[in-house]
């Protein structure tokens, strides 16, 4: 019972801290930054508070693409969208540039398509329902 009270006090202190920080730091935000709304972040089970929440606003963050190695900027508006609207995990950061993200999405979609086609072919073979292309290949082999 004592531990439960201690946890409640800690949680209420953290929420008061977050409100105070986000309200206080809006006044000295640099140009191009976007304020953080801690209430719209995705829930997490961490005891820590990310730097952008402590600061009270998002700022442009430089990063290097993991695939192609080009230097990029993760803008404050993109961070706002990722953390608050898309409900992305608050401990993640950008690691791929836009062209590499598009290529990765296409690669995964193709791999998924190939995998599902293989499963379908396997299911058809196990049900003794041969697809037309296999039947055609068998007929060609028999003619030779």
Task: Count all strands and give the number.
Answer: 4
Q: Roughly how much helix do the residues carry, as a percent range? A: 40-55%
What share of residues are in beta strands?
5-15%
Number of domains: 2
Give the overall shape: elongated
Task: Output the structural class.
Answer: mainly alpha
What kind of sheet is the major sheet? 2 strands, antiparallel
Distance from N terminus to C terminus (CA atoms, Å) equals 83 Å
- Mean model confidence by pLDDT: 82
Q: Give the C-alpha Rg.
A: 26 Å
Strand order of the largest sheet: 1-2
Characterization of the model:
The protein is mainly alpha-helical and 144 residues long. The protein has two domains: 2-96, no CATH class; 101-143. The chain is 55% helix and 8% strand. It has five helices and four strands. The radius of gyration is 26 Å and the shape is elongated. The chain starts with a helix and ends with a helix. The model has no long low-confidence stretch (mean pLDDT 82).
